[in-house]
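Researcher: We're teaching a course module on how sequence relates to structure. For the next exercise, students receive a sequence and then see the predicted structure as tokens, so they can try to spot secondary structure elements on their own. Here is the exercise chain.
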Amino acid sequence: MTTRAPAPPPAEAVFPALGTTAVLLVTDPKALPAAEAVLRAELAAVDLACSRFRPDSELTRVNRNAGNPTTVSERFAEALQAALRAAGRTDGAVDPTIGRAMTALGYDRTFASLRPEDTRPLSPALPAPGWRRIVFDPRSRRLRLPPRTLLDLGATAKALTADRAAHRAAAATGCGILVSLGGDLTVAGPAPDEGWRIALADDHAGPAIDHGPAVAVTGGALATSGIRVRTWQRAGRTLHHIVDPATGEPAAPVWRTVTVAAATCVDANTASTAAIVLGDRAVDWLRGTALPARLVDPDGRVVCLGGWPPDSATASRATPGDPR
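Model: And here is the predicted structure for the students to work with:
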């Protein structure tokens, strides 16, 4: 009779990135330096291309040139196409033209730089101009934004980076990889025997809760969107960072958090963000996608869809699906 030695526990790297926390797990501890190098390179590239807060970013240049044609880099084009795809799949519930709406709400600098309480009056809400007004040719990478439009690629660009980094790191190391950026994660390569155990919570950076809900992920991606963490006070109002493009206002607090499993982090994040924006319409919309999803309302009531396992003290298995 032979026995197999238990696999070593995953090795981990944790560091700040993109205004949030980057977490990297690898099944082979010896592969951690190489995998971390891949992740840091991807993070540096997306920050230079898509940061809304860097004066030297490509996004800043593109926004300053709104109304005029400009040629963008391959990395920027990939991020823009991911954002436009998200807008099309959600009929505009996730729209990259919300930049001015975010600025009007006071989110005009990195979240860490925002004053938690600001008594200055709010600017009038600014509905998004709409993604359909963007003119972009993927072959020539020529882009023209409507005049006075500010792009915000934040959510989809971060998710795209998780996807790129996980798959590139797995290809470079040949081992199992998990990349989490602010709690939105992608796994690639061979997973641990029991899968990657993912605890579910409102705040990815908060302390772990013993016996809280968790799932095991063996492939694909998981993303959570919520309205409880990135909040600030302005003129006596509590605001959050998920904006309804139709109104320019923070999405109504119908759901506290929404977690979605999908084949890619971009698709998972697109669906979870859209569900927060759609509010009362989110359940029917998510059913139409057939994606596994877990929604939590402000009172803590949980709704599970698409085969998402019920909450339990031990990790259940969530299988990412292919969105339609």
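Model: If you want an answer key for the exercise: Residues 21 and 301 are 28 Å apart (CA to CA). The chain is about 30% helix and 25% strand.
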